């Protein structure tokens, strides 16, 4: 069961205080807390047999994770600088519009 504890769309301070390294995200499994995004990703990939069986397949899974993290760093809502945030929003709007157009034309 997935349970999130948030106040005003942020983790509560008391909740975060009990987490390893006092930061989020944290995945709790059978009373054990797993922190750090990469560790959580790799754990879930192994649990759901998505990590790969060979060293090359595992490397490809790691590659996918790193690519996603690179993209996440460029999300508009993660940016503090307002000018850069405006530029990133424009880029994302164009990407999402083009992606939807591509998806619709290729799936029809």
What would you say about this model in short?
The protein has 108 residues and is mainly alpha-helical. The protein has four helices and four strands; from the N terminus they run ββαββααα.
Write the layout of secondary structure elements.
Blueprint: E1 6-7, E2 10-11, H1 13-17, E3 26-29, E4 32-35, H2 37-47, H3 55-73, H4 82-107
Antiparallel strand pairs: 1-2, 3-4
Structural description of this entry:
There is one protein chain. The chain has helices spanning 13-17, 37-47, 55-73, 82-107, and strands at residues 6-7, 10-11, 26-29, 32-35. The protein has 4 helices and 4 strands. The protein has 108 residues and is mainly alpha-helical. 56% of the residues lie in helices and 11% in strands. The longest helix is centred in the last third of the chain and has 26 residues, at 82-107. Mean pLDDT is 77; it is low at 102-108. A two-stranded antiparallel sheet has the order 1-2.
């Amino acid at each position: 069961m997935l349970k999130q504890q948030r106040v005003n769309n942020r983790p509560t301070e008391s909740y975060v205080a009990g987490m390893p390294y006092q930061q989020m995200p944290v995945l709790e499994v059978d009373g054990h807390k797993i922190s750090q995004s990469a560790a959580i990703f790799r754990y879930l990939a192994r649990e759901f047999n998505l990590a790969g069986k060979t060293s090359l397949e595992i490397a490809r899974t790691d590659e996918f994770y790193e690519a996603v993290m690179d993209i996440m760093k460029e999300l508009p809502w993660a940016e503090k600088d307002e000018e850069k945030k405006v530029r990133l929003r424009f880029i994302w709007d164009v990407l999402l519009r083009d992606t939807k157009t591509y998806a619709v034309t290729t799936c029809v």
